[in-house]
Amino acid sequence: MDANALFKISYGLFVLSANDGKKDNACIINTLQQVSSDPLMVTVAVNKSNYTHDIIDKTGLFTASVISEAANFELFKRFGFQSGKSVDKFENFPHYLRAVNKTLAVTEGTCAYISAEVVKKLDLGSHTLFAAKVEEAKILSDTPPATYAYYHANIKPKAETKKETGKTIWRCKICGYEYEGEDLPDDFVCPICKHGKIDFEKV
Ligand SMILES: Cc1cc2nc3c(=O)[nH]c(=O)nc-3n(C[C@H](O)[C@H](O)[C@H](O)COP(=O)(O)O)c2cc1C
Questions:
Q1: Would you say the CB of residue 51 lies under 6 angstroms from ligand 1?
Q2: Does the CB atom of residue 12 touch ligand 1 within 6 A?
Q3: CATH class of 159-203
């Protein structure tokens, strides 16, 4: 099997937000799809180790902001490279509006938002698939939405060439995290973006 074939799948990118009753939180996902038109439904697949997962599991409410080609890497660092379990991701971040369902839509580096209420959940092992009915949707700008391929080519900083240390480096193809060591354990999970060994390359 060539698992690299899965990198040929095209995805959009989204800031997925939820509110735990006290605090707003959000993470970056590439796993949102429209799956029906009547009723209008979307699905999102969220890793169980994400704090956003736990909030959506509890409240059943979220807003997904569609990331545009105007987004900068800071947006990905803020929402995709740290967890709301330990930081307040919306601290000093004024670029949002509150949707009708009380979750936040990000208004900078995005071109639309979709608010939805979960109607079904499916346990998929590492992730939960939430199927949700769209309750509100709005276009924010005419800038084209960013694809995952666009993010890798134009937004994610190019990996620096490491000085020769004599040690083997394994780099996460998703977020760029580097692991030093001859062998990467089979059960290794990227501490930043939670992707497994299959998404690492030897550099
Ligand atoms: C480009 C990119 C794509 C990502 N895609 C997903 C995804 O589809 N599903 C997911 O659960 N996490 C995804 N992540 C990882 C989460 O955004 C990340 O683990 C985040 O820190 C979780 O934050 P939280 O614990 O506050 O929810 C992605 C991260 C990046 C940078």
A1: yes
A2: no
A3: mainly beta
